Amino acid sequence: MAQWEAELAAEAEAASAPSGGGGGGGADAGDLAAEWEAMVGGTGGSMGERFNMPVGAERILNQDEIDSLLGFDLSEDDYNERSGIRAIINSAMVSYERLPMLEIVFDRLVRLMTTSLRNFTSDNVEVSLDNISSIRFGDYLNSIPLPAILAVFRAEELDNYGLLTVDSNLIYSIVDVLLGGRRGTAALRIEGRPYTTIERVLVQRMVEVVLNDARAAFEPLTAVNFNLDRLETNPRFAAIARPANAAILVKLRIDMEDRGGRIELLLPYATLEPIRKMLLQQFMGEKFGRDNIWESHLATELWTTQMEVRAVLDEQQVPLSKVLNLQVGETIVLNANADSPVQLRCGAIPLTTGRMGRKGHSIAVRVDAPLASSAKRRLTQIRRK
Q1: 98: buried, middle or exposed (CB in 10 Å: 19+, 13-18, 0-12)?
Q2: Which segments of the chain belong to CATH 2.30.330.10?
Q3: What angle do the packed helices 197-218 and 100-121 form, to 10 degrees?
């Protein structure tokens, strides 16, 4: 800006200098210099004053503009719609793979909870799924609006933990409904005190109903039991994973006419890792990806498959030189008689034992013992593969 003003001043001086003509030319140049000086603002003026900006001052951002630039908004409730610098910092947080089957499981959970909570409260309950998102565990603990009750539960078959958060609005609504509160009146909220034993017991019963519905929702996919471990009111005591670990956050909205609240279900990715392959599959009917036609075809082929079974009368270890010197007509004496047990084998796997005999014109073996344990283990391994 100062360089541009200096150039303007130089042009004005050049225009005001006498050109060798009459005095009229100098007057015109003086008028032009005065006009430039008035436009620039004199020796102490600047272009900033022309545009109503103070000289030498910088524009200061207000708090709303700073929050918008940084991406921090306290009223923001959706973690997927962040902007600014915070979106760049948390860009790695939402880069986890999508689990299509998990969305179907939670849709099933919403339907089950609608029915079970209606039976639990004897009221008209509507359950809706707000959203499913990925979040760091530490960020979620810092964003929990207090007061709230946090239920830590254990997924037995998955050998890990999960977290279920019940906000204060739903807590007071459930207590009001179960204890006979009037319809049409909002639940009374009393802040600044811990939850009473009655409130905790009623919320615990509701949490057990929700966990039982979650077990039923996962049942078509895999058998898993969600058992309540403890109830906490301080998020620091409900830490079930490291702060940087990723987790799936499911927000459920529960409405009971003019009352209601929110339940948030958080499952760390480490908890879902044992069934990750199942959650990645696409929806193919009620069997969650199982192909009944191929399954029945494979079972039919297995039942009709033929296998070679050998009846071993006796085994002997002899030197190779003796085997090479065997002549036609020589007799090999076996350490077995007509009543000795015979071992049945399939390849190198012993199956069972029996007795040698005859049926019609064929030599037969009568099985005397059940299937060997080694053969059962081998069959189990084949089925798992």
Answers
A1: exposed
A2: 306-384
A3: 140
Q: For CATH 3.40.1550.10, list the domain ranges present in the chain.
A: 94-280
Domain 94-280 in CATH: superfamily?
A: CheC-like (3.40.1550.10)
Domain 306-384, architecture per CATH: Roll (2.30)
Its pTM stands at 0.53
Beta strand 148-155 with 310-312 is: unpaired
Structure tokens given for 290: 């199982």
The tens place of each residue's pLDDT in the chain, 385 residues long, gives: 555 556 655 665 655 555 444 444 455 556 665 665 665 554 444 444 444 555 555 678 787 777 776 665 545 444 445 555 665 555 544 445 678 888 889 999 999 999 999 999 888 889 999 888 888 898 898 888 888 899 999 998 888 999 999 988 888 888 888 887 766 555 555 566 788 888 899 999 999 999 999 999 998 888 899 999 999 988 888 888 888 888 999 999 999 877 888 999 999 998 988 888 788 777 544 454 456 677 788 888 878 888 888 888 888 888 888 888 888 888 888 777 777 888 888 877 888 888 888 888 888 888 888 877 777 777 676 666 5
Amino acid at 268: P
